[in-house]
């Protein structure tokens, strides 16, 4: 008895010691996120205008290429339904041969069709990309910067419609192409074209990325890229040429507060759409406005340096003219590695207003020109006014002058939005925040691109302090039930970065993420804007998701066969047991315990373990000896990590039990009796699928045995 108890104790000790550290399985090949190169652009060209319509057509542009070799291009990839991609998408080779790229946009999947290039003649006699004065009709510039695309169908099957493209210049333009699918050529026919007249909104300023609202209105983003309004009418400011060109466009000097907003296009399925600035979502360097499926919640990105993430909630669904603007406050994880460090998000309310009210505030600054500029002074909203508004909003003395300031209205929140957000505690340390995107067909996440992780994000100060990543990162934000977000995490990591290389970021991975597009299956298209790759690239990113496997783990005993039957009554009998497992989960390691209990004496007579079970149909073969008697043989299957972590509470996944008579006698109610007649066949063959009558029987009694052994050991020592 003592020997058997010691055996039990040793067996359990060995079992619990099989794994002293958490189970870590090595990731096998194919079990990782995919980065598939699908498009490469000509030298110096930026990827812009990524848009997939309802039929899966993928529109994409080449902005500002090397103009000596190639003009800026608006086009579409035909022959592929990007709303229904196959499991395997062909990858484009990373070529560095000029001949492979000079001719245009290269694709690894589908065929790229050029629809329009800078300088092409349009139906109205103007030039594609031409920006013409609304004052005198003269051409002011010829843009090489086609950015956002939006296709608005005009028939039920989406084979005809208007393709709108934003031209990202100072002043900006919008082109309209009327296109129709030609089934004979398997291409689009351009049947009409024009540059739109933007006089209704006093022209546009740097119209860049955008999106289409759930109700079908294109939303263009004015990327203000003007950090300090104080310099707007300073003729010596390094970027003043833009204001001069805008003045030529208008015929009068522009009001800075007319620009830097989201522009909504209404009646976009007609030849004469209407344009409306939605002042309610604030003035800053807009990159994109993503309207959520409630038709009220909008997330907005702010490009540039020291920028802010925003949220807008409209008062009424589908109406962006009234609502409340919020700015994000970040709480960083207790780590610095930018590839893994995320942030909790709190939302700070800035103010509520309407387009009508904000327009009255803007009108207060009409008529100011370069003649009014005074060095060291501000002709517009001053930093002191911003401070006074913030102090009144918070009821705090922020500048320590002993006075809590106030403001008569909330114009600061909507006309100097970035500074206002920072003044009341929002996080203004983002660096080169690009597109924020969402797809209602894959509603789990919103994605946000950061083309470069440095400067205020890595300076050891403020709310954000992470390690540099000069190749950029794409973040994502889990969407909550009410379309809110409270978390931001890195998910697509650019690099690695090599400072000594001619093109510093690895050619086989992301660099400078800019435009993003979420496909219906949840994969993400990432367009680059960088000089850290020789040729900017569009990547298809697919996240590796652990397969959900319906498992019903099984352990069964195939046979117990007597291999040695002694003639005398005192020698042990030898048996061989064969067991088998099936329906196991992938990437999971299992352990099985096989035990023998003498039902006559209530003693344990053997414990065997089957460890490191990792695949279906594995078989276990074990020989053991038992004295004559009545026994129950039990096998129990566990996840190895579960058993090792807490044997007493480990879950029994499956089990078998079988009565066994050892010897030539018989068993009656668990009591063994010897008989004279020899039993010829003492093997027991079991049918598969036999169910256990006592779940967890083995492990419970094992633990009881351990306790008894410990008690006896303690008594012996005392």
Walkthrough of the structure:
With 718 residues, the protein is mainly β. It has a domain at 2-17 and 550-717: Immunoglobulin-like (Sandwich), CATH 2.60.40.2550. Helices cover 13% and strands 37% of the residues. It is built from nine helices and 40 strands. Helix 1 (2-16) packs across helix 9.
Offer a concise description of the structure.
This protein is mainly beta and 718 residues long. Helices cover 13% and strands 37% of the residues. It has a domain at 2-17 and 550-717: Immunoglobulin-like.
Give the helices and strands, then pairings.
Layout: H1 2-16, E1 34-40, E2 46-52, E3 58-63, E4 73-78, H2 98-101, E5 106-107, E6 111-117, E7 130-132, E8 139-142, E9 146-153, E10 160-167, E11 173-182, E12 187-195, E13 207-212, E14 218-222, H3 240-250, E15 262-266, E16 274-278, E17 286-291, E18 297-302, E19 305-307, E20 310-316, E21 319-332, E22 343-354, H4 355-363, H5 383-394, H6 411-415, H7 417-423, E23 430-431, E24 433-437, E25 445-450, E26 473-478, E27 487-493, E28 513-518, E29 524-528, E30 537-542, E31 554-564, E32 573-582, E33 590-598, E34 603-613, E35 619-626, E36 629-639, H8 640-645, E37 654-662, E38 666-668, E39 671-673, E40 684-685, H9 697-717
Antiparallel strand pairs: 1-5, 1-30, 2-3, 3-4, 4-6, 7-8, 9-10, 10-11, 11-12, 13-14, 14-15, 15-16, 17-18, 18-20, 19-23, 20-21, 21-22, 22-27, 24-25, 25-26, 26-27, 28-29, 29-30, 31-32, 31-40, 32-35, 33-34, 33-36, 36-37, 38-39
Helix pairs in contact: 1-9
